[in-house]
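hi! just following up on the protien thing from before. the input was this:
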Amino acid sequence: MQAMIRKIVLLLLVTLCVSSPVLLGIPVSLFAESEKTSPQMCEKRINVREGSQHFAIPYCRSRALSDGHSTATRAVIVIQSSSLNAGDCYKWMWEAAGRTNNQSNIVVYAPQLPVFKDIAAYNLADNVPVWEDSEWAVGGDSLKLTGTRATQISSFEVIDQLIKAFYDRQKFPRLQHIVVVGQSAGGQFVNRYAITNGIHAEAAGKGLRIRYVVMNPSHYLYLDNKRPSPVDATLRVPNAMTIFALNNYLPAAEHHDANSGDCRNYNHYPKGLEDLWSYPARRTTTSMKTSYKTRDVRYLIGALDRERNAEGLSKKCSSDLQGFVRLTRANLYWKHLKDIYTDDISRYQRIVIVPGIGHGSENMFKHPKGGMEHIFDYVPF
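and the predicted 3d structure came back as:
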């Protein structure tokens, strides 16, 4: 009965929000049932394309992308969090840039990835794609609806095209550094994007060095099928006994069924490299694992982000196989990377425990040992 009610509600939403061809059999993702809307919508638009289809992506920015910036040496691309708050993330990041005493040489862009209900809430034009509430954070394709939205585009492809705009040396003659950063769900985004994108080497060939700053994600993309044991953190392929041990540390209400799809498919994307989605499937797993080792990645985790009941923390089986809280998951992921790449990974990547910080985006961006140092390379005297 509840499922039937949800479908009826979705049908009504579609009737109100999109054109009538949806009612004539054009598929609509059931993920469109999301209850969220974005708290605000950035007013400006970036033009991107998928094949011959052109899209307009909302974004907040310190300067119009089309205008370029004659003195900027660093571009920061900040990804929204699970609150869908691109405007807030832009504001906090620009304020952080102001603390560097070098703001005039920095540009900040916050692309906004709207969700289904934003169509009605903000009267979005047909050429603005929308995503399922969680899939935008892991590179998912936009919802397949009607009109322009019948063509889908990956949220990662949006960032690829934003980065390519910086190749124009007439508009960005001095640009050297690009930082892609995200907190919480934005951290999930950056973690996957750093591993799967194929644009990194191309950007380097244009004289642009990309750094990825992953802040407090709920879970990570693992590069093999081993997971840390809940007993002693030894990395091994999990089985039914692993789930049994996992449940020993959890209240009964949070116990996992070893035969459930999420437990059995723990290594499927976006938690692992099996059953890849459209964007990551553009590359081979071998290519992704090989190239990732030398990418400049910073994993920042708040020292106080260790609450089991923290907002937005995934408690799925595939997530709990990475640890029970964000702080633990970050440390275990670092152990996983060292198991894959040996200690040599520390030449290129770092994990940083940010003191005194829990799970707040603004505080992470502005902390001297957090965003200030690892986004802006700013260390106050």
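Confidence is low (pLDDT under 50) at residues 1-33.
The longest strand covers residues 53-61.
cheers
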